[in-house]
User: What shape does this take?
Amino acid sequence: MKKNYKIKLSALLLFILLSISLMCFANLEDLAVYNIAFISTGIGIATFSISFSFLQYQFSPYKALLQYVSNRHLIYCYAVVFIAIIPLINLIINKTYVPAAGIFCIPLLIYGAILLPIISIEECNPRLLMEKNLGMNNIFRYLNEFKFVDKAAKEKSEKLEFEWPNETPLHSVTSKYNTNVIANDPFALLCNVIELALKNGVKIT
Assistant: This one.
């Protein structure tokens, strides 16, 4: 993950340098007639990149393990949307700024179009899911919560005990064999990842 982070940061710096270079060499006054094109191009790139990144979840064999879209992916989507509307904001403020904003933002949006599918693929990676959910803090949290839920279930079961020895009333049969279901169970996630990996022929090393 750290290596991927360095690659992403290096690519971002390259695209920022590309944006600055285009602004320095472009004749912004002659480009003012293309204001609508700068605005529509940025919004179009953002729309397709975000839509395509969400489409990656549908193709992942591990999509059943995802309870919701990750916060990291949403933050990048919001950033892409914000960059896309910068030329539009400049049109409201002063239309002469639109070419500069468009030339600067379009390379960054292209970078976002490359980055967002990568982020969505990473979020569907079972290795990353296990690293997030099988950390020691999560396991200790689960065990503490399980003790609390198990204690409450035992107390409820004891209240339903029948007075006669070796005899169980019908209304408490299931209470003796209930399964305590706790949200975000890391062990259940591990079993699901292994099951899906076996079904899809994926080897997790």
Observations:
- Residues 98-123 form the longest helix (26 residues).
- Residues 22 and 103 are 7 Å apart (CA to CA).
- The helical segments are 2-25, 35-59, 71-84, 86-93, 98-123, 126-133, 136-159, 186-200.
